[in-house]
Each structure stands twice: as C-alpha cells, then as structure tokens.
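User: My instructor asked us to take a sequence, write out its structure as tokens, and then describe one feature of it. I'm not sure where to start. Here is the sequence I was given:
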Amino acid sequence: MKPRPIIIDTDPGQDDALAILAALASPDLEVLGVTAVAGNVPLDLTAPNALKICELAGRTDVAVFAGCDRPLQRDLITAEHVHGKTGIDGADLPEPAASLQPQHGVDWITNTLAAAQEREITICPVGPMTNLASVLQASPELAMHIREIVCMGGAFFAGGNTTPTAEFNVFVDPEAAQVVLHSGAPVTMFPLDVTHKALMSRHWIQQVRALGTRTSIAAVGMLEFYERFDVDKYGTYGGPLHDPNVIAYLLRPDLYAGRHCNVEVDTRSGLTLGMTVVDFWGVSGRPANCQYITEVDSDGFYALLLELLSKLP
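Assistant: Let's start with the prediction itself. The structure tokens for your sequence are:
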C-alpha cells in the first residue's frame, strides 16, 4: 500500500518531537515536510528544533519550513515552564547541519495542497493552528485537497491545562482553531480528554532507554524532563504524551474511539477564552464538524510508539 502523505505542523516541544520521530519511523507515512509555528517556545527555537529532531532520526531529506511567528490576532503565549527554555530540554542535541527552507511554511503548505489531488494530503497540527488557518483563510478552496486534519488540541470533559477551560494549543490561537474547524475539511481532534488517559509509565520509559540508540537516549532525556511538570501538577504516576497520539491514530485508528459532533471555540469570553465547546450529546442543533476523540487503548498506544522508536538510529 502506498504510504499516506502527511504534513506535520509543529512547535517542538518534547511531545512534538516524539510525534515527529514516530512519523519518520513509519513506512506507512510519507512526511512531505515539517512546518514550524510559534507556540511552546518562539519560532526562532521551534524551527531549528524541528530540524534537530529530523536529523536525530537520520532524516536530513525531510524539508523543514519556518511558518508564523505569532497568532492570527493575539500576542504569543509560550510554555517554557513546561518545556524548558529550548523547548526540548532534556536532550543535548547538536546544532542542525541542514538549513531551513527559504520558503515560508504557509506558502509551502499552500503550494503543496494546490498541487495535490482532491482529499489527498493529511495535515497534522500538533501546535497552535496558525499556519494552517492562514492557508485556509487565504485559499479556502484548498480544503478540498485535504484528506483529513488530525490535530492535538482542545479540552472539554477534562478541563483545561492553561486556563480552567482551555488547552494550550487552542488557547494560544483560538481564532486559528475556529477557522480550521469550519474549513469544511474532515477534522479529527485529540483533546486532553483522551491524551490524559494515556500516561507514560516508568517501565515504558525504561523500555525506551533499553533500546540503546542515540534516538532512544535523546528521547528518554526529553521525556524525563517533560513529564516532571505534569506529574507535579496532577499527582499522577506519569505524564501524558499528547502529540504522538495523532501519529498513532493514522497508523492504528482502532486504538481510539470518539464521536462525530459539533465543536466550537470560544474566541470572545474572558473566563472561557480558548475553550473548545463540544456538543457531545447533540443538544445544540449545530452540524457536526469534528471527530472528537475521547477513548484510547493506552497499552496499545505505548506499544506502538516503542515499536516505532526501535526503528530509528
């Protein structure tokens, strides 16, 4: 079977890094390119971080593009308190040998979609959705060329992780998330409601360490730094590994379950700004616009991720 062509839109971030590594390890996915956006840390860090992760995986052939350095309408909010000053603290990765592509990430996504067939390209936003929203605002007809948008973002039943009601990726650029949800392209969303049901265990991290590769050693360093924040915050035995769920879903959709329903983003209210309002029970009469994932086979997810990491150098 021909590999599924995808674009990874990202703000690395340790969990973003694991998502990129997982995608690059799979023969069933063709990573057409990686676009960076400002989010967990500013763009001048997320873009080179994406290069570093591709080089860690031995994939210098993957083109990396710098995209938007701020949200559509708001000042940038970052999360160094979670991810460290570099965004990928815990792994001492060398400066990338490759360079960023000269083209702006939004322009590259636009051109890639324009050259694609109808419903051909899957886009995986695992950070604020500014880049993709910029494409869809300028060229809404390109939504017909998108097979599926599979994104990490949002929260409803679990509450928020940035405000009481808002998840970070959506809170950083709520207007962008609302554009994506109303683009007409099929959207599958991985919110905190599902990612908080897939927690890393000490045993699993030790299994990654036991792989003994340069990638696994770097991954463990990042994961051990990254999970300490959530363990302290939530009092759980391990931290959630949000973004790799997007890649796992592309490879093993049977690991997940959810509901096709209406999802709207609050772009106006102070107290609930950035909240994803999920009509899970169909009470609003608004048309469904999102496959909202709420269930995961956590053991299956981590087994798959370990298998993928084992394929990397």
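For the description part of your assignment, you could build on this observation: The longest strand covers residues 256-265. Try explaining in your own words what that tells you about the chain.
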